[in-house]
């Protein structure tokens, strides 16, 4: 199958490589030259622009940072000069970026008017899951469009959930990431407290992992350096899921909570803490670096 892949960052790069390894013909594009160069060394064929990438594509996959990038790409600045105008009728667009549900619905509506199918399919599982092809997809769209997307999603993920109609995948994703943001801060506090008391971080991590505090961060993404060899914490908090991306997701969750008059006090506090952490010079580090806020210095 010919697939256009737009956005070759920490997640999109390895996802596109998995589709390539599965035998699909990928035409990839990213605005960043570094991302394109890296993708080329992994064997991907690079297009000269997003418009070029979608020529002849049966499926278009996008993996961009935030709502404004997705809207600008597909709808263009004035809503007239976007990529949708260059995508053939009958094509399926799979947007895996984490963005506002309302933006997914806006793009889906414009796509439908142009005879193009659209699903939102944000992911969970981190860069490790993207590389291993074990991501969890949370899909919003029709049954028929999900079944069309399934053979493509299966090459990049291990779990595919149908959350509901377009936008529902995004709602599930922000609920999950609000919980993740909160549990990473909680895990950081517990790790820092134990280590301040002289406990060995690996021993403490293993005790909590197998006790009632066990969670995903303790399983595979410990914020304390040296506990998990492949976690960003053991690599100077490089790569992974950026603090500012977590901040964006917590912002989406709070906007939604306000609209729904929902009570999310810990989600609100987590957003405020990641905002302070970002301003403190950690915006580009992995979000698990939030442990630095609660760690004893020196
Ligand atoms: P990233 O910043 O590493 O990559 C995004 C890429 O999109 C960049 O290379 C950028 O140059 C490119 N881009 C932006 N606008 C573009 C355009 N118009 N055309 C082509 N390329 C464009 O981000 P990431 O970590 O890969 O995350 C991507 C999305 O996945 C985000 O919405 C994020 O919230 C979500 N996500 C990330 C993780 C993670 O662990 N990193 C996990 C789950 C979900």
How is this fold's topology laid out?
Elements: E1 2-6, H1 12-21, E2 25-29, H2 33-41, E3 45-46, H3 50-53, E4 59-62, H4 67-75, E5 92-95, H5 101-113, E6 117-120, E7 123-124, H6 126-132, E8 135-140, H7 143-153, E9 157-164, H8 168-196, H9 201-209, H10 216-220, H11 243-260, H12 265-282
The chain binds nicotinamide-adenine-dinucleotide.
Major β-sheet profile: 6 strands, parallel
Question: Going across the major beta sheet, what is the strand order?
Answer: 3-2-1-4-5-6
Tell me the total number of β-strands. Answer: 9
CATH topology of the largest domain: Rossmann fold
Helix-strand sequence: EHEHEHEHEHEEHEHEHHHHH
Computed CA radius of gyration, to the nearest angstrom: 20 Å
* Number of discrete domains: 2
**Annotated CATH homologous superfamily of the largest domain:** NAD(P)-binding Rossmann-like Domain
SSE class: alpha/beta
Distance between the termini: 55 Å
Report the sheet-strand fraction. 5-15%
* CATH-level-2 architecture of the largest domain: 3-Layer(aba) Sandwich
Q: Which runs of at least 5 residues are low in confidence (pLDDT < 50)?
A: none
The number of helical segments is 12
Helical fraction: 40-55%
Task: Write out the distinct hetero groups bound to the structure.
Answer: nicotinamide-adenine-dinucleotide
CATH class group of the largest domain = Alpha Beta
Overall pLDDT confidence: 97
Q: What is the 3D form?
A: globular
Pathway: Amino-acid degradation; L-valine degradation
Catalytic activity: 3-hydroxy-2-methylpropanoate + NAD(+) = 2-methyl-3-oxopropanoate + NADH + H(+)
EC number: 1.1.1.31
Family: Belongs to the HIBADH-related family.
